[in-house]
Amino acid sequence: MALLGVNIDHIATLREARQGIEPEPIYAASVAEQNGADQITIHLREDRRHIQDRDLKILKKTIQTKLNLEMAATNEMVKIASDIKPDTVTLVPEKREELTTEGGLNLSEVHRNAISSLKKAGIEVSVFIEPDLEMIELAKDLDADAVEIHTGRYANLKKESEIQAEVEKINNAAILTEKLGMRVVAGHGLNYHNTQRLVELNIFEEFNIGHSIISRAVFSGLAEAVLTMKLIVE
Ligand code: PXP
Fold first, then answer.
1. pLDDT of residue 78
2. Whose CA, among 57, 176, 208, 214, lies 20 to 30 Å from 193?
3. Domain span at residue 194?
4. Can you tell me the distance from the alpha carbon of 153 to that of 167, in angstroms, rounded to the nearest whole number?
5. Domains in the chain, number
């Protein structure tokens, strides 16, 4: 059985739209945990567009499962993570102008120090990379504990033959990751239609899913929210 990490960034996106106090990501984390989430994932971006430093600090104290912090491998972020000590740090690429993480990390020697510092602070280090065998070998060489395979390309494909080829690529990447003794994780763009196929590969230990869960929550909650307000104004 695979573990589910729920990414709550977009609860914070909604809060930041008004720069107010609701919806509260801490409450979202609690609801997710009470309903089976095995991990809460957040991305503290350099531009702080959604998750804020205070969210990270409070979640570290309140989470009952595990906290997975996605971040760029900058000195600022390595310092923040080493102070707060989430259970896992997932190193991701970050560009200011992007809407979301657009591709896997282009791992190189420059990541060795960040990985080593985070591990010294007692944090598990995962790297978010494309299903590319050379990158996976490099992740091992850089001493990563886990690999999160970027499933964004798979999620965007429409043609069955292309989907099949990408699933095979993902499967081969996952097999190599496991063989090299790293934890095998998948994430990005996974939704209620495309996740099952990857679950059936029976190789992923964990899935990190955000946008589709928060999107669905809008509609599973909207009717109740309108009815409750209607009762107030009547
Ligand atoms: N995993 C990583 C490393 C990510 O950067 C993201 C997006 O923040 C996710 C998983 C979740 O992706 P989505 O919101 O598309 O489910």
1. 98
2. 176
3. 3-233
4. 10
5. 1
